[in-house]
Design a protein that fits this description.
Blueprint: H1 10-16, H2 22-40, H3 42-46, H4 53-59, H5 61-65, E1 69-74, E2 78-83, E3 93-98, E4 119-120, E5 123-125, H6 133-148, E6 157-162, H7 172-182, E7 190-192, E8 197-198, E9 209-216, E10 218-227, E11 231-232, H8 241-254, H9 265-273, H10 281-286, H11 288-299, H12 303-306, E12 312-320, E13 326-327, E14 330-339, H13 345-356, E15 362-369, H14 382-394, E16 399-405, E17 421-423, E18 428-429, E19 443-445, H15 446-462, H16 472-476
Parallel strand pairs: 3-6, 3-7, 7-17, 8-18, 9-16
Antiparallel strand pairs: 1-2, 2-6, 4-5, 5-19, 8-9, 10-14, 10-15, 11-13, 12-14
Helix pairs in contact: 2-6, 6-15, 14-15
This protein binds ligand LW37F6SG and zinc ion (2 copies).
Ligand LW37F6SG binds near residues 131, 168, 194, 196 and 434.
Length: about 475
């Protein structure tokens, strides 16, 4: 059975229905297969070669040879594509993804080696398959098809593929933004990774829900340190640098930041989803003004849903000591916090200082930024409605709601270029999948990867309307 044996059935046929039937189905299948092979050949994507422009040029020959596409390398490794539209009066939009990945160790308990790109039981395994090679390949494959088909987009669009998103995007995304600013570009909307279709992750919700994140949390990394003169382990002081610092981080863990559930974009998210929850949760979710504190207490029991409730606190590094019989003169810990939309960096710092409550513990901000603005999602918001329509084209009965990205994305650097920034990929995630991000056994199903290509292929075409129709209902009927 071929990798994309479903390509001959309903799913693919639906998208090629607008093309030339069987002929294009063959092309699509062939190219999906090729792209899936590329994704499976994880080594080529997950190592530096991925940043070799020749590699992408070979995989997507039409993209790289089309007169409609201008490609440039930014900061040596990031890619900026401009796909010219036939109607220059239409404001362009931008798609983002990134080619870099977090490390993965062969020593961890991966079911298949993390850089093998091996396929098992319908899933392609490998570091980057979820975060964020699926988007990279989905966007480029969809562009390849649409160009092969001879389709000229009416609305021009940019594609930005960063190479350093996992370390803040300071070379990739930041320089892409600089270039676009220099060129006077303003974007109708921006679409990046950061949220998805959740199926069974939100307990009590019947069926999957596509959550288009309209904002992302702020973040800070704090360095906590304690210093004292070193001494002999046989005459220990009553408290050591390690003990003092351990107690401080323990206080932070035992005193989570306050519950803010309902006060950020997650409020709108749950109100939109309310009618899909089973009784009595549907009633509870419809009345967040009254029940938010109760829901927060339930959601905080699970680490994924807890992230929607508050600013989170993660002690990620602890370094101290040089020798087992020397009292350590210095101990340091790093605390990674993700700031809820209803809080500011300043408020978080004040709270940490008060919880640590020990002047011997020095607190330094390694970096920090406030939560991102909330992008519009009403019926007149072009980007949100077009993304929603594209999801509904693929999954007609899907519930689509605004959501919140609990991590950070390159899109945060684009806030001066657009007030409509969305984070969403059409991958369907189930219980257990959240732990695969930056974790072990990162994988994408064949269906998710196929869906990614379909989604962007449809999105390019859906963006070609000049403006939204008057009523939201009719957007889906376009
Ligand atoms: C963090 C994953 C949480 C999974 C929650 C499952 C529900 C949402 C479903 C899918 C969307 C997940 C999108 C994850 C995007 C992750 C982006 C990322 O890793 N960003 C980094 C940037 C690092 C910048 C330097 N510190 C991050 O936030 O750490
Ligand atoms: Zn990512
Ligand atoms: Zn990541």
């Amino acid at each position: 059975m071929g990798l994309l044996s479903s390509a001959g059935t309903g799913k693919i046929v639906r998208i090629v229905g607008k093309m030339d039937g069987a002929k294009y189905r063959d092309i699509l299948e062939e190219n999906l297969l090729e792209s899936a092979r590329e994704l499976r050949l994880g080594r080529r994507f997950t190592f530096q070669q991925d940043n070799d422009p020749k590699h992408k040029a070979k995989s997507f020959p039409t993209v790289f040879s089309s007169s409609k596409v201008k490609h440039e390398l930014v900061a040596n490794y990031s890619h900026l594509f401009w796909v010219q539209g036939s109607r220059p009066e239409l404001q362009p939009y931008m798609l983002l993804a990134h080619t870099d990945v977090v490390p993965a160790s062969e020593d961890d308990a991966w079911e298949v080696p993390p850089f093998s790109g091996d396929e098992k039981d319908g899933f392609i395994y490998g570091r980057g398959t979820m975060d964020d090679k699926g988007s990279v390949m989905g966007i480029l494959a969809a562009l390849e098809y649409i160009l092969m088909k001879g389709y000229t987009p009416q609305r021009g669009f940019y594609i930005g593929l960063g190479h350093d998103e996992e370390v803040h995007g300071l070379n990739g995304a930041v320089n892409i933004v600089r270039l676009l600013k220099e060129r006077g570009v303003k974007l109708l909307f921006v679409l990046d990774e950061g949220s998805a279709i959740l199926d069974g992750i939100l307990k009590g919700l019947d069926g999957p829900a596509a959550l288009i994140a309209t904002s992302e949390k702020g973040a800070t990394v704090l360095k906590l340190s304690v210093s004292m003169p070193p001494s002999h382990a046989s005459m220990p002081p009553r408290e050591t640098t390690i003990g003092i610092l351990a107690a401080a981080v323990k206080r932070l863990e035992e005193n989570p930041m306050k519950r803010l559930f309902g006060l950020g974009p997650e409020g709108g998210m749950f109100e939109h989803l309310a009618h899909k929850f089973r009784f009595p949760l549907n009633f509870v979710m419809s009345n967040l003004w009254l029940f938010a504190p109760l829901i927060a207490r339930i959601m905080e029991r699970n680490e994924t849903t807890n992230a929607f409730v508050r600013t989170t606190t993660a002690v990620t590094m602890f370094n101290a000591g040089v020798k087992e019989n020397v009292i350590a003169s210095y101990a340091e810990a790093f605390v990674n916090m993700r700031i809820h939309s209803a809080q500011t960096l300043k408020e978080v710092l004040e709270c940490v200082e008060s919880t640590v409550g020990d002047p011997r513990v020095k607190i330094e901000v390694v970096y920090g930024f406030d939560p991102l603005p909330i992008s519009p999602y009403d019926e007149t918001s072009f980007g949100f409605q077009i993304i929603k329509k594209t999801v509904l084209d693929m999954f007609p009965s899907m519930i689509v709601a605004p959501g919140m990205c609990i991590a950070n994305t390159d899109s945060r650097h684009f806030k001066d270029l657009s007030s409509s920034i969305y984070r969403f990929t059409p991958a369907i995630y189930k219980p257990g999948d959240a732990q695969r991000f930056h974790g072990i056994n990162e994988r994408t199903s064949r269906e998710n990867y196929e869906g990614m290509v379909q989604f962007f292929f449809r999105l390019f075409q859906n963006c070609d309307i000049k403006k939204l129709p008057e009523s939201h209902t009719s957007v889906h009927e376009l």
